[in-house]
Amino acid sequence: MKNSILISLLLLFAQLSLGQNTWTAEKVMEYRNITDTHISPDGKFVAYVVNEALMDEETSEYNSQIWVAATDGSMDVQYTRGDKSSSSPQFSPDGQQIAFLSSRADGKSQVFVMRLMGGEARQVSHVESGVSSFKWSPDGQKIAFIMSDPETEEEKKQKKGKSDVILVDQNYKYNHLYTLTFPEDPREETVTRQLTSGEFHVNGFDWSPDGSRIVFSFANNPTINENLLASDISIIPSDSGQVTPIVKRPGVDQNPVFSPDGNWIAFESTGGQPERVGLSDIYKVSANGGELIELQKSPDRNASIQAWSPDGNAILISESYKTSRVLLAIPSNKDQDLPEGDYMAYSESKLPIITAIEGASGAFSVSASGNSISFTYEDLNTPEEVFVAGLHGENATKVTRINADFNAPELGKTEIITWKSKDGLEIEGLLTYPVDYEEGKKYPIILQIHGGPAGVFSQTYTGAPSIYMTQFFAQEGFIVLRPNPRGSTGYGKQFRYANVMDWGFGDYEDLITGVDHVLDMGIADENNQFVMGWSYGGYMTSWIVSQTDRFNAASMGAGLPNLISMVSTTDIPDYIVVHAGDKEYWEDYEEYEKHSAIYYMQNVVTPTQVIHGANDLRVPLAQGQEFYNSLKRKGVDTEMIMYPRTPHGPREPKFLMDVSPRILTWFEKYME
């Protein structure tokens, strides 16, 4: 191990002395992400958010600031600055102002407004709990926003007196709707009014086109588990009044959006029953309530509404398609029945596919005029930037150069490959070659497994920061295979549901046959195989080392090796239960044990590193501790890395930057 570290240091010093530009963890962290776009009503400008890492001796945080680009390419400037981040930009309906969120004033997220042509930002909200999301009214005279219930005076007193006992699943802080109204005299303060109250949790809303009403969706309480199970839709006058139910049934109905004429409300739905594996179809209902109308199913049945088309004839949605993320249109009147999951049938029909299927698009925004859209775009070899296009995707043009100065080193080539699993199911994945790949030479291979299980590896830029830095490993001479096994999103409902009651079996074969396929290609060294994954990927890592000894070493990140203790401690228990056949563990111990690596511990011989966040509620820390302590007591070589202040994945740049080098050191220790 000492020799391996010494060699790595010598190589690094040699590269620095020669001025070589290589993929190090530090280099990857120079990349800047774009997290949001909002196009002006006339389509002439795009506001967008740039997120970058700030690190020095005492700092490790991300800072987001707002930039504005002209869609004709004549301007691209930074609009906000400072130690505090700014985010969520929205143009006013007349296009003359930009509202955004920032905690720059009082440490709470508040709404600020500044003129498009520059000047000082003006704080327009002064609310106790801070604003989580907001939208301008159609006339620009109001802003509606969501805020959680503030602490009561008694709660403040208890906190100050150190008697603030937590009563679990009691005294929830609910999100509710508010409006702020701009005064005629801009020197006066805005007026804030609370619209909703009670024991329900608002999770989305939209203004009617005439500004008279606000439609909103809500869950029973703020817990993530409850929001995955049930959500209904109601409507309220925008100047307050009686709440009127619009959609009330079992399952999740959320993200309501008014049609341009105000007559209809489109929304995402699980179809009248909970679908805890994951399902989102598009429905519509009259703005006055009534029959719920199911629209054309999208290819993945995992649709996210972005906007109505200006003529009201279509609803623009985004979702994954295999390794891409796209924007497409669903007719607002169901007039055809295309086969589920068949993306090519959509391409050949009259349903327009708006963005490219090569690469990944996101952060969509549609101009109020309906003439143009803005979005981010990247592909395997191209950093993320902001693009604008016509409503049908025509004349797509890049309008930013945020990563133009990134100075990327040479990339290891990445390609999409497919193979047949043991049962004949076709599986797709991304294969990245070493940076200095030489034909005829065999290289160590890393099997990287995504989370979820309904995650997906997409055609995003391979030099961008992540828990596992693809090009960092490619620079160090590894082949990296990133499969999308059954259970992944992007391949239709049937594929996504295919691993229910099957964790560790069909998906295991999908992964292992993928590694075998790369070995058969003649480019991977069968004597140097490694595996790593986070969350569900960590689960599969623990499972793999309990089923085979073929891997030299493994790294389990936020893994869940014990489904019984997992389901009784996680914040999403129903997600685990549905994958176990909709039975609680006390109703079927065998089913939970059958799929838990901890019950096959006697088989584990693979040196396994364990990495976990100290504040993880999704996969509680005890899951990592169980496996680490079991490995240690069994005499299998292990180490545990625990990141303080960290939930379900690193949030601080220095921690994110730390993960891949630690895994590399662990893998190199077991290289033959």
Secondary structure layout plus pairing:
Layout: H1 2-17, H2 25-28, E1 33-39, E2 45-55, E3 60-70, E4 76-78, E5 86-91, E6 97-102, E7 110-115, E8 122-123, E9 133-136, E10 142-148, H3 153-160, E11 175-181, E12 191-194, E13 201-207, E14 213-219, H4 224-227, E15 232-237, E16 244-247, E17 253-258, E18 264-269, E19 281-286, E20 292-294, E21 304-308, E22 314-321, E23 324-331, H5 343-348, E24 360-366, E25 372-379, E26 382-390, E27 397-398, E28 414-420, E29 426-432, E30 443-449, H6 470-475, E31 479-484, H7 493-496, H8 506-520, E32 524-534, H9 536-547, E33 553-557, H10 563-567, H11 573-579, H12 589-594, E34 608-613, H13 621-634, E35 638-643, H14 653-669
Parallel strand pairs: 30-31, 30-32, 32-33, 33-34, 34-35
Antiparallel strand pairs: 1-2, 2-3, 3-4, 5-6, 6-7, 7-8, 9-10, 10-11, 11-12, 13-14, 14-15, 15-16, 17-18, 18-19, 19-20, 21-22, 22-23, 24-25, 25-26, 26-27, 28-29, 29-31
